[in-house]
Each structure stands twice: as structure tokens, then as C-alpha cells.
Amino acid sequence: MPRIPGPRKPKTGKHPVPALPASAVLEIIARDDDGEFLATPVKWDGPGDPPRIHVAPSKGKAPGPALGIGDRFLGRIQIVGDGAIARVVKPLAKPLNRVLGQYTRQGGQGRLTPTDKKSRVSYLVARGDEGGAKIDDLVVATPLSGRQDGLQKAKIVEVVGPLDAPGAISLISIYTHGIPDGFPEAAIKEAEAAKPPTLKGRTDLRKLPLVTIDPDDARDHDDAVHAEPDPDHPGGWIVTVAIADVAAYVTVGSVLDREAYLRGNSTYFPDRVAPMLPEALSADLCSLREGENRACMAVRMHFNADGKKTKHHFIRGLMRSAARLTYTQVQNAIDGHPDEKTAPLLDSLIKPLYAAYAVMKRGRDDREPLDLHVPERRVRIGTDGKIASIELRQSLSSMQLIEEMMIQANVAAAETLEQKRILTLFRIHDEPSREKIESLGEFLESLSIPFAKGQKLKPGLFNRFLKDQKEGPFAPLINEMVLRSQSQASYSPDNIGHFGLNLPRYAHFTSPIRRYADLIVHRGLIRALDLGKDGLKDSEIANLGEIGEMISAHERRSMTAERDAVDRYLAAFMADRIGVILDGRISGVTSFGLFIRLNETGADGLVPIRSLGNEFFRHDEGRRALVGSRSGETYALGDPVKVKLLEAAPLTGGLRFSIEEHQPMRPPQKGGKARFDGPKPNKGKRHGPPKVAREKRRAKRRR
After folding, report:
1. CA distance 200 to 530
2. Residue 279 DSSP symbol
3. pLDDT digit string (tens) for 148-162?
4. Backbone angles phi, psi at 16, to 5 degrees
5. 647 forms bridges with which residues in the sheet?
6. Dihedral in degrees, nearest 10, Cα atoms 331, 335, 337, 342
7. How far apart are alpha carbons 672 and 81 in whole angstroms?
8. What is the C-alpha separation between 41 and 700, in angstroms, rounded?
9. Alpha-carbon distances, residue 318 vs 203, 246, 406, 534 (angstroms)
10. Which of 164, 224, 655, 697 is the least buried, fewest Cβ under 10 Å from its Cβ?
11. Smallest Cα–Cα separation from 362: which of 303, 402, 299, 410?
């Protein structure tokens, strides 16, 4: 059994596990005290209660999305001592055996409204099945057999808490997506037992004035930077990036290691974070606090006057941050408005960082990474747990400075591990698929915008195209469509390069507090450079493919949970604006309606197709449009609209609109080439062909 990523050996008991088949359909029912999943057979004919089986990830190709409580899978079972371990062979469709929802009462009867926005049903909760729930509580229920008053029955089995309590919205996402929240006592004790670092086995970097530069609401501080002129190469710079040495505290096979792997990464919500590591590490010993000794892994990189990295070397050191700064502070200082903290640092630290970045940017510009401009909104939560403000995230040069220094540190890590022939987890990003490029080309053709699909795909090709369209009316839409055409990045020991960054090798090194992949890279560097005994182990190397697949799935899980939480917060924010007319754009076109993104908040909602008018609208996939069969009226992706807010559902994050004003950006197209999903319209009816025509076709098929 590999030590990672498999779980520990199950605890033995007085009663051995009954005879189990070699494989079975299992359901994840809970977590044990150490946070590991427990499953039981879906069908059990043996004596007593069904056994509880520890779940370990499968070997080889990832079976799909990360599993959570309530999920079922085909598992391969292995008896170990008096316990059993199951490896995931294939995830199965999730049965509707547990429902997360809001408990209410209507007409004296208990009701459960699911949080799942795709659900179209509510449940009846009979007297005695409330499980102690109060009105508007967030609850977990089990559907029961039988119906009453046309509604399926359900029994509440867990009360999560009041729906209007601060943090309830994030709890919905945490529960729905199976995000591990909280740590077992063993992990907390292990973190709290960690000792402050000493100089033993480390290089003393405390005299080097490294500074942290983060967002003003940053929850962790795991990277610091410094820049100085290269005395041996005029015009060149030496940039030092120091990263918290998490590997010194989270060792292979420890409880903390299992917990970090179980999460894969920290998950960030507007009001909280579900961290990868306990607070004693993430907010203390592994946070590069100002003026405090901290263990670090540092890389010193030399750049020539053209911005090319000429050499680098890694150091396991002891550092002391000279200052904790924010992006806004640094930006204001370089723009001529320093504050009390940045004024003394402007000439000695901040200006050298910008001078080094100016040189590094030359190399970046020559490399031509993909340069997209897609606005990102930031949701700020007040002390009452409600949205205080929604604002566009700024794009400051101070942010770009840190981003490029982190990218180069990641490149240095990948190069070193490849040179030392140590297998690692690369951050890979494939080029767009042929199908996505064809689809993008068809869409641009509908806008009468040429796009040379036959050229060799490189980020620079997209950049030049985006630059040509920068001042055009479709610029925001085209940026978003190019983004949608890109592949999804992931982690793998098989390096294919990073298309978006236009780099042949790239590995995440700079955030081991919040990403398990970075911890693997740190351990690889420790092993490769003989920097200690806590480096990458053979057991990890043997399972890197599996580890990469699982943490990639965990990353997707977190992204979905974060997006769902923001949707629910936005719906709650909009709930008191029913009937208000709002400006937006069509952000999605489907056979069942239009998705609208509001300009002010970035919230997305649906205009059902049935509300567009009396005629039949056909779905033209190539043009991303709905086209009226008689009038040719066209609702196309990117069109500006004014919509009325009809419904806002914080429980599901859903918004429903009606279109009040439409400004088409493309000429109407009657009938023609429009491809649609569903039956053709009937004269006088919305759907279905005339009966006579239908009978003629049937007769023709019979002949």
C-alpha cells in the first residue's frame, strides 16, 4: 500500500469485517475522526449492519470529478487486518437519497425546498419528521416513499443552521460540493505542536529585506520578494522569491499530509476560506509575518538586460519579512503617493522591484503569453454576513509585478527538477482543441470577423487578433469567447508545456500553504538538491499520476463551489430589487432561453424562451443566437439588453428576467440557416408539426 495517496491502515476492532466481495457498489456515508471518507455497500445481505469501509483514491486514470458524501461508486475492496479499504474504480450517478434544502411551512404543513437550482420539486415534511428543524433552517433530508397532496415525502436527518445566519450561503456550497471543512483533532494537535524554525540546516536570509505584497484582504502570506542590481551584468537584476517552507511542517504520511491531500487546495468564499492546512500553520508558522523568523524555500534568479533568465539557484533558508505591504499601497507609492509605511521603503525596496520588473517584462513580451481582458468582480461581505459591495477587481502594475516574479519562480522550479531528473507535478495547459477552434471560427464568422483557423496555434496569434478587435463593439464578447475556447489547466507528471503562458515547462512552487501541488514540488526540490530528509519519497513518485489527477479534480470542485457561492450571494443582494429595470448583455444562448449578465453586478440570470414572444424561436448554434421563425428577430450572444428582474432565489442562486428592451448588434436573419433543437412550429401553436404533415411522414417511413 502506498503511503500517499491511500489512507492509513484501518483501525482494528474486536469484530472482523464480514466476508466482502472483491468489488461492489458502495456509497460514501461519512468521514471518520481523521477526515477520511467511509463507505458501505449499497446492497448488504450479510449478518448485522453493513460494514464501514475506508475509501482510497483509485490508481491510474482519474475516474472523474472528486467524490463526496452521498456519492456512489464501483469500488475494488481489499481486506487489511480487521478492516477494509476500497479504491474507486468508477463513480456512479448520484442517487437522490439526500437533499439539502430550506425548511418552511405552508398551510400548516412542513415543506423542503432544495438548494439545487436544477430541482423542480419540493418535498412534504410530515409532523414528527422535522428532526428539530425550525422555519427557514438549512437542513438535510432523506426522500421517503409515498406521496401526499401530490408531493413526495421527506424526513429531515440533519439541521445545518438558520438560512439567514452569516455564512449560511457558503455552507450550502461547502456541503453541496463536499468541501472538507474543519480538521480532526489529530491534525489540529499536530499543527499546534509545530515549533518555530531555527538556523539548523538553513541559510540565514534575515538580513535580506524581503517584503510581502498581497491583496488588502489576504488571508495568508506565503511569498516575499526582493530585487537588486546584478553587479556582474550591467542592466541586469537579481530577483529573490522566498516561499513559506511548508514541507518542514507537513511531512509525508503525517495526519496533516493526509488532510492536505484530502482537500487538494484551499477553497475561497466571499466570507471565509476552507483552508488546506490548520490555522496554526496557514495563519502562523507558514505565514511570512512581518518581523518574525520564518522557514522558507527561496530562489535567486538572474535576469539580463533583455529580461532573459540566465541562471538561478534554490536556498532553504531562514528569513524575516521587512514589511507586509498591499498591492494598493505599493501602487500608490510608485505613483507618487507613498504612505507612512511605504515612504521609507520607496527608494530602497519598491523602486528596485519595479526596475527589475521592467526588465522582466521585456522577456515576458517576447514570450507572448495569452493576454486576455475579462473583467472580474469582487464580492465584499460586511460584518452582518451580507454583501457590502461588488466591485471590479483592479489590474494594477503592482499585481503584474508579483505575478511575473511568481511565474519565473515556478519556471525555475520546473527547470531544476527536470535537470535533476526528479519526477514532479507540472502545471500543464494544452492548446485549444480543434473542435473549439472550429466553433470559435464559426462564431466570429457570424460577426463578419475573419479568423485564420489554419495557422499554427500560439498565444501570440490570439493576442494579435484581440488587439485588432480591441476598439470594436464586440471586444468584451470576443475576449470571453477566446477564453471559453481554451483548454483547462491541470496537474500531471507528463509535461506537455503550458499553452497560455507559452512556456515549455512550468510547475507550481509559490503557494504550498494553499495548493498540494506546490508542496509536492517543494519536496521534489528538497530531494533533488539534498536540502534535508523531508523531501519527496519513492512512494509519492510512484503515485504522482494519481495524485495529479485527484488534486486536479479537487481544484475543479473548489472552483465550482466558489462560483456557486458567489451566485447565491448575488441573488441575495438582488432579492430586494424585484421589478427594477437593469442593464445587461446576453451572456449565453440555449435552446431553452437566454442567459443575461448584468453590467452593474456581474450576476447571471435566465430569460426563458417562452417569454420572448408568440412566435417560435429557433436555436442557431453557430451564431449563438435565437432566431424568430417569422420575424427573423435575433437574440444573439453579446447583444445589449434592458431586463426586468422577476425573481431572485438566494437558496439556489437563480435569477429570472424578462427582456424590456433589446439592441441587436447583428442584422435580423429570417429562417434560413438557423439550426434549432426541437420540433418545428405549428401554425397557431408554439410547438409541434401539423397533424397532416406528421401522418404523411409516418406513411412515407412505412413505405
Report:
1. 14
2. H
3. 878 889 999 989 888
4. -65, 155
5. 656
6. 50
7. 69
8. 52
9. 6, 13, 19, 17
10. 697
11. 303
Distance in angstroms between the alpha carbons of the first and the last residue of the chain = 64
> In Å, how far are 62, 140, 160, 540, 563 from 176, measured between CA atoms?
21, 10, 12, 30, 12
| The three grid cell numbers given for residue 539, joined into one nine-digit string | 512512494
Length of the chain: 703
Asked whether the beta carbons of 359 and 307 are under 8 A apart, the reply is yes
- The DSSP bridge partners found for residue 151 are 148
pLDDT digit string (tens) for 105-127?
A: 988 899 999 988 777 788 999 99
Q: What are phi and psi of 351, to 5 degrees?
A: -60, -40
**222-to-101, 212, 406, 646 alpha-carbon distances in Å:** 37, 8, 11, 45
Pairing of strands 123-125, 151-162: parallel
Quick one: DSSP state of residue 646?
E
Question: What are residue 290's DSSP bridge partners?
Answer: 321
Indicate the DSSP class of residue 60.
S
Kindly report, residue by residue over 288-345, the tens digit of the pLDDT.
999 999 999 999 999 999 999 999 999 999 999 999 999 999 999 999 999 999 999 9
Which grid coordinates belong to 431? Answer: 492548446
Rounded CA separation 332/323 (Å): 16
- Cell 434549432: give the residue: 676
- Rounded to an integer, what distance in angstroms lies between the CA atom of residue 112 and that of residue 100? 9
Please, are residues 382 and 483 in contact by the beta-carbon 8 Å criterion? no
Question: What Rg do the C-alpha atoms of the chain give, in angstroms?
Answer: 28
* pLDDT at residue 69, as a whole number: 65
8 Å CB contact between 609 and 617: yes
| Beta strand pairing call for 203-204 and 151-162 | unpaired
One-letter identity of residue 361? K
- Grid cell at residue 404: 511575473
Q: Note the pLDDT tens digit of each residue in 130-146.
A: 999 999 999 989 888 88
Report d(CA 638, CA 102) in Å as an integer. 35
Which residues, 6+ apart, have CB-to-CB distance to 685 below 8 Å?
Answer: none
Three-state secondary structure string covering 419-431: HCCCCCCEEEECC
Evaluate whether 630 touches 613 at the Cβ level (below 8 Å): no
Place of cell 452521498: 70
The span from the CA of 171 to the CA of 173, in Å, is: 5
Listing DSSP states for 287-343 in one string gives: S--BTSEEEEEEEEEEE-TTS-EEEEEEEEEEEEBSEEEEHHHHHHHHTT---TTTG
As a whole number of angstroms, the distance between CA 266 and CA 411 comes to 23
Q: Crossing angle for the helix pair 475-485 and 434-446, nearest 10 degrees?
A: 160
**CA 512, CA 525: separation in Å to the nearest integer?**
13
Q: What is the pLDDT of residue 683?
A: 33
Sketch out the chain's domains with CATH numbers.
Answer: 23-92 (2.40.50.140), 99-165 (2.40.50.140), 193-422 (no CATH), 434-486 (no CATH), 578-703 (2.40.50.140)
What the block records as the C-alpha cell of 35 is 477526515
d(C-alpha 405, C-alpha 141), whole Å: 49
* 8 A C-beta contact, residue 334 and residue 398: yes
Phi and psi at 143, nearest 5°, equal: -60, 140
Kindly state the cell numbers that stand for 181.
471543512
